[in-house]
Each structure stands twice: as structure tokens, then as C-alpha cells.
Amino acid sequence: PAPAEAVRTRGLYKRFGRQVAVAGVDLVVPAGSFAGLVGPNGAGKTTTLSMITGLLLPDAGSAEVGGSDVWRDPVAVKAHIGVLPEGLRLFERLSGRELLMYNGRLRGIPKDEVARRSEELLTVMDLVSSADKLVVDYSTGMRKKIGLAAALLHNPRVLFLDEPFEGVDPISANTLVEVLRRYTSSGSTVVFSSHVMELVERLCDWVSVMNLGRIVAQGPLSEVRGGQTLNEALLHLV
Ligand code: ATP
């Protein structure tokens, strides 16, 4: 049976030299949530997400995704997460379609299936007419969309996105929102970092608030807000 929690970390800790970036984070995200990870610049959101998705080794603590330990069982975790990192390390000399084919083949998905999934995702992301253009010529919105498509190819159960809406035009942002909503309504989990509180308020049913490397509040959106706007609530928290 699928665990009730999609994500749980215990005492995650990371320092860079003398700078403690993440100072003992216990992050919890219930399965099926549309979860927002919020907090001011430098709060430790990116560092936390990087440790959960296996991109960065913690100094201490543990992380589980879907009940599997990220460092003890990386193969299981990799199979059921999708990641859209902040800096989108894409192969820019490929076309959008080639990028999806390449990522799908890397994942070990059979060629016919990758081709079918790629066309499906290109359509959903409204990228069919740009599919043969090089990713290097894509706008930020198009890059985020092709990045999300690549992250969704293998039908992951938990998606992690670091600032997915940063610098994205409104039409692409709407497409991203629609895709993510459809994805969570089918029972999968989304965790994304953002400092746009209006967006988090509109999309999320679960919020984790970080400040100075720690979780300072976490729970259902309505509880974290406590009758205020999320911005007002954050004034008291960070
Ligand atoms: P932002 O919203 O600006 O992306 P964030 O909440 O994602 O911020 P992090 O990027 O995780 O925060 O950074 C947390 C702290 O760790 C910051 O003080 C940052 O300067 C520091 N830090 C992060 N990565 C490194 C690194 N590779 N080397 C040194 N310090 C780092």
C-alpha cells in the first residue's frame, strides 16, 4: 500500500563552509498534496529540495519519498520522482522533441512508448509547433514546459519543482498550472518552492514555511494562514 506521506525528512542538515543552509528540517507532505515550500530568499528551500531529490548529500538527517529512503534506496526513489530544478540543466543543442526522446531513453522507457508519451506531452504543453526548434531558442516559459514534460515522461508519483513559475509568461504559467492540477487530481503529489504567495494560496492545499534553514510552520493551507492572507501570516513567522 502507498504510504500516507509522500515526503518525510528527519533532521536534514547541510552547511556550506561556516554557512548553515539547512539546520535540521523535518518536512512532511501528505500523499496527493499540492504542496508549497515557501520562505524568504536564503531560507534553504533549494538546498532542502536538492537533498530530497538526491542531487546533494546532506551532512546529517534522512529523507523518504513514497516510503523509500533517498540514499539507501535511490533506485526506487528515482523511479517514482520527477524533478524540475531551478537552473534547468537542459541539453540546449537538442530540439524539444529530441530532448524528450533522449530523457525517456535515459529512463529506460521503450522507444515506441517514449515517442507516444512525448507527442502527448508536447500537445498538453502547447509545444507542438516548437517541437523541432532548438531548446536554446526557447523562452523561459517554454523551457519550464519542456522541463516539466521531461520530468513527467515516466509518470512519477511525486514531482518536485524549484521556482517553476519564475520568469514565466502568463500563458505558459496557466499551462503549467493546468498540468499540475490535473496531475494532483489523479492522486500524485506536487511539491514546489515559490516566493509568490498569491500563487501558493491559489494552488496549494498544504504549505511548509522555512526561515533560516528551519521549518517554522507546516500544515494545511487554511491552518497556516489562520484566517489571514498567507503574506500576513508569514510576517509573523519569518
Ligand atoms: P532562494 O529563494 O533565494 O532560492 P532558498 O530558500 O532556496 O533561497 P538556498 O538557496 O537553499 O535558499 O540557500 C540557503 C543558504 O545557503 C543561503 O544563505 C545560501 O547563500 C547558502 N548556500 C546555498 N548553496 C550554497 C553553496 N553551494 N555554497 C555556499 N552557500 C550556499
Automatic annotation (TrEMBL):
InterPro entries per the UniProt record, alphabetical: AAA+_ATPase, ABC_transporter-like_ATP-bd, ABC_transporter_ATP-binding, P-loop_NTPase
Keyword Secreted part of the UniProt annotation: no
A GO term, aspect molecular function: ATP binding
Compartments where located: Cell membrane
Biological process, per Gene Ontology: response to antibiotic
One GO CC annotation: plasma membrane
Keywords: Antibiotic resistance, ATP-binding, Nucleotide-binding, Transport
Superkingdom classification of source: Bacteria
Domain ABC transporter: 7-237
Chief subcellular location: membrane
Annotated protein name in UniProt: ABC transporter ATP-binding protein
Organism whose genome encodes this protein: Sphaerisporangium melleum
